[in-house]
Amino acid sequence: MGRAKKVVLAYSGGVDTSVCIPYLKHEWGIEEVITLAADLGQGDELEPIRQKALDSGASVSLVGDVQEEFVRDYAFPSIQANALYENRYPLTTALARPLIAKILVDAAAEYGADAVAHGCTGKGNDQVRFDVAIAALNPELKVLAPAREWGMSREQTIAYGEKYGIPSPVKKSSPYSIDRNLLGRSIEAGILEDAWTEPPEEIYLITKAIADTPDQPAYVEIGFERGLPVSLNGKALPPLQLVTQLNTIAGDHGVGRIDMVENRLVGIKSREIYEAPAMLVLIHAHRDLESLTLTADLAQYKRGIEETYGKMIYNGLWYSPLKAALDAFIQSSQERVTGTVRVKFFKGNATIVGRQSAKSLYDEGLATYTESDEFDHKAAEGFIYVWGLPTRVWSQKLRG
Questions:
Q1: What is the CATH code of the structural domain delimited by 177-294+336-356?
Q2: Which residues are catalytic?
Q3: What is the pLDDT of residues 71-104, one digit of tens each?
Q4: What are the two backbone dihedrals, phi and then psi, of residue 93, each rounded to the nearest 5 degrees?
C-alpha cells in the first residue's frame, strides 16, 4: 500500500472518511491525501466539511457541485430506461456512485495522484460500485479502501481519530445508516434490521405521513420530450428544478416510500427503506406515456432491457460495454416518447388519470364502441382463422 504517494479520497465528513486521512498517512505511508466531497444536494453544509478535511490532515480539500450533472446525465437516462431494481427501487443512491467515481478519477488526473480511496466497508454494495467504476475509467489507478481492511469497531475508529485530533461526534449517533442526495434518501440499520418491525415515522424526512397530507388532491401535468421530463404544469423547467419541485409535491402527499428486503450484490439480504418521490412518479408517468407512443413489440421487448439496466446500475456496471449498448437501444426507443401525463396526488397515491401526445398511436376511431367505430369487424374472422390455425392443426392431429 505504501507505494501510492498521493491519494484522492472520496470524503463525506463522517467519522470513517475523516479517520481515513490519518490512517492512510500513518498506517499506509501515503504522503499526501486530497479529499473530494461531492455536492449531490444532500443538504449538508459543505464549507464545514471542507474545513474538517483540512483539520484532519488533508493537504487539499475539494468540493464539487455536481447536482445538475447528477440529474441530467444519470437520473434522467435511468428514467428513460424505467430502471427499478427488483421492480421497486429507483436506484436513487446507486446512481450517485458512478458520478462520484468519475470526479474522483478526474481529480486524480488533475492533481497527479497515483491512487484514489473511499471509506466503504466490506459488506455493502458501494465498494463494488466504486472499485469497478474506477477500474473502467482508469485501470491504472490504485483503489484503496482503508475501512474495508482496518478491522476497527466504531468505538475504536473514533478513538483512532481522536489520537490524531479528529473530534468524536458530539451528538448522539443515530442508530440508522442514512444516505441522502437530491433524488431521495435510503435508511437502514437499527431496529429496521428486524424485517417484521414497522418503520417508525421518525425515520422519514421528505415524505409526509398519510395523516398529515392534504385533504384535497393535487394534479400535476408532467411534460416529456424524447423520454426526458421537461415541464411541470406546462412550465418548462431545468432538470434539477423539476426534480426538486416534484419531490416536494409528491412528498407532501405522502408519495414515495419504499420498504423492501433487497438482494445485495455481495450476497446478503438487506432490509432497506427508501424515500424517492420524484423518481418513482417520473418513472411511473414515463412508462405510461410509452404505452401511448411505442408499438406493442417495442414496449414489450424494452421491459426486458429495463430489468437488465436496473441490475447493472445496482451492480456497479454503469461504465460497461453492455450498458453502452443498452443506452443506444433505449435512446432509439425514445424518439417518439413526447407528450404529457396527468398525475393525481392524494393520500399516499400517485394515480395517472390522463395522457396525451402528438405522436400517440392510440386511435379513438379504432378503439371506440360508438357508431363512429372505424374498425372493420369482418376482417376479424379471417385473422382469427389464420392466427388459430396452428392450434387447430395440433388439436386435429392429437385427436387423430
A1: 3.90.1260.10
A2: 16, 97, 126, 177
A3: 999 999 999 999 999 999 999 999 999 999 999 9
A4: -85, -45
